[in-house]
Amino acid sequence: MSSSLSDSGSGGLQQMTMIQAINSALDVMMERDPDVVVMGEDVGYFGGVFRATAGLQKKYGKNRVFDTPITEIGIIGVAIGMGAYGLRPVPEIQFADYIYPALDQLVSEAARLRYRSAGEYIAPLTVRSPFGGGIFGGQTHSQSPEGIFTHVSGVKTVIPSTPYDAKGLLIAAIEDNDPVIFFEPKRIYNGPFDGHYDRPAKGWAGHPGAMVPEGHYRVPLGQARTVRQGEALTILCYGTMEHVVESTVADMGVDAEIIDLRTLIPLDIEAIERSVKKTGRCLIVHEATRTSGFGAELSALVQERCFYHLEAPIERVTGFDTPYPHSLEWAYFPGPVRIRKAIDKIMKD
Amino acid sequence: MSDQPASGAGDQRNGRNLPPLRLHVPEPQFRPGDTADFSSFEIPAAGEAPRPDEAAHPGTMQGLVYGLIRVLDDEGAAVGPWDPHLPAETLLKMLRAMALTRAFDERMFRAQRQGKTSFYMKSTGEEAVSIAAATALASDDMCFPSYRQQGILIARGWPIIDMMNQIYSNKGDRLKGRQLPIMYSARDASFFSISGNLTTQYPQAVGWAMASAARGDTRIAATWCGEGSTAEGDFHSACTFASVYRAPVILNIVNNQWAISSFSGFAGAEATTFAARALGYGIAGLRVDGNDALAVYAATRWAADRARANAGPTLIEHFTYRAEGHSTSDDPSAYRSADEGSHWPLGDPIARLKQHCIRLGIWDEERQAAMDKELAEQVRDAAREAEKNGILGHGLHHHPMETMFEDVFEDMPWHLREQQQQMLDEAKAAGL
Ligand SMILES: Cc1ncc(C[n+]2csc(CCOP(=O)(O)OP(=O)(O)O)c2C)c(N)n1
Ligand SMILES: [Mg+2]
Q1: DSSP-assigned beta bridge partners for residue A183
Q2: Membrane-crossing residues (chain A) (predicted)?
Q3: Does the first or last residue of chain A, that is N or C, have fewer Cβ atoms within 10 Å of its Cβ?
Q4: CA Rg, chain A, in Å?
Q5: Is residue A42 less than 8 Å (CB to CB) from chain B?
Q6: What's the pLDDT tens digit per position in A258-297?
Q7: Which CATH superfamily does the domain covering B58-328+337-387 fall into?
């Protein structure tokens, strides 16, 4: 964990769920910077459908924490305008599945404002949005659209996998002057998930990543975290899948090096290169659909940069290229069986 | 001018000797702990609203977007020009469909609480909005509903067991377990596939209506969305198209005053009515007591006749109240006054239609009680039958897994075939 600290947190450590850590990051940033505003559907009085913004309106007032009309393109467009004024908006899109109506403002506007005005105007937004499946949410509460945003020049894409990282990355994202898409893996809001849907749900208690400084600290954007050191193969992953990978690797007893990317853009290419050159094998795991997913980019980068070190073809474990199904969720989800099979294949070659 | 934010905003405030600007953020009248008091709420009397000709120019009927079309008065009498003079048979049919919808909602909500499925949404208090409208439309008029118009299917006599199979994602689910519970699709009932993404159905309904008009068909389209959903861009695109092409479509806004935790003020209700949205588009607009089945019927019939006469679209606001939580994932006591629903002055749509039927002498409390009992049994029996097809559980055993890859395209491309095989191999490895 300590490798992730660029400045140490002030205040004591506290055990937090990912929701609490996100809430704490927002609280810390609103306290420190009067320009930070939080907005979105149901985020105000109620505190968000996942309770991520609970208590903030009461503490900071309706001028800084407010409910919005149900129009995602409006939310992002308004946030861009507030950013142009000089505020630092943190809009929430209630589910990543509902970010599509906002795409024009995100892709054509937020992502290009700095470029097209030669730096005269910027869009310092941090768009928070719960994403990913594993909650029987059907096709409109389960998707992982990160690959759409990594494909757009000018937005950063960040995905935490622990409460500690969620808080530190969110603070870094809010402080960043560029637009950041901050996808929160909702399956692990209240506890890590090992991919075994038939086992009782676990809480964050006892997880080392759940000990979170109460005050301000950053986990810098663009730095991956080595979850586990190993020699046999490198596994690149992020979000919920980090936990599924970790548990599968432990079950298999394979000496894998697990890298949690944490930030997809900008990517910690050095960490990836260093690891793959050491292990000579690479598995990429994400929950998003496979074709043109971020794994394709990772695979290309590893091939371009580590080709002569590779001892086996790069493998990808992903969600299937179908809409996210409701009842067949666990056949769709890239769980332990799919990961195990890919590891076996890589190690055989 | 450089405009780097980093706490630059503060310096730009109050540079001149002018009064400071203020941001208005809407606030509902009542919050948890408050006693709801609607005494200052002005309710237009039943029978008061004029009824224009179906072909009237929208500009000549603007008052109707600010008033409230009401037919049933406090005594349960049908009064005024909007009284649709329905035969007893139609009244009792509507009453029954509304009661069945409520019984269905009760049972399915409980089924979710018992862990039989993942999710459910009730339409309690809003039964008239869907059932009276469906009754006023022709059975083959095309409906593009949101998730809270299960009443349309029930009014059209769709088998409730089919709806339950969908809710359980079980073997009997025609949608193959692909959709979240209540996201029905019933082509044979002219009921479009429901989307979880708000208001997408609005322009689609307009497009269907335009196609029907372009082909010289006689069927019209109707669509529904919540008042919160009117903020989405799709709502406004739909109104523009409907206006430009005079599409034979009925655009319904179900103003149940809440959008999850956000009161209607966050969709613009502090400034004007939802029906008034019609004015700017040059569309006919009606504002209706949504808890008055006769008013909903009459307004829908007016709009349908207008559309069929090629006189263009109608936007109807149905003023009602969401009597229960948003969904099984919601606890409204966290954001609204607990007694708001019981104090809501427009009452309960079932109770009001029942009162009317009793007053007409075609119904009585005994028959109502017997009907409620019979419907509860009908729903219970259907649920038992549906549960024989399975409940959601871990979901894996109801539909052959390979069906997950069907219907992505008409023909399955190679990459989906490969993935399908991979999944079957995995299932085998997992012992499924
Ligand atoms: C595009 C989109 N954004 C957000 C949501 C999340 N959401 C689901 S229902 C809802 C509230 C809708 O309220 P309203 O339109 O008033 O309909 P009601 O639930 O009251 O029937 C919200 C915000 C969604 N489903 N789709
Ligand atoms: Mg509503």
Answers
A1: A129
A2: none
A3: C
A4: 19
A5: yes
A6: 999 999 999 999 999 999 999 999 999 999 999 999 999 9
A7: Thiamin diphosphate (ThDP)-binding fold, Pyr/PP domains (3.40.50.970)
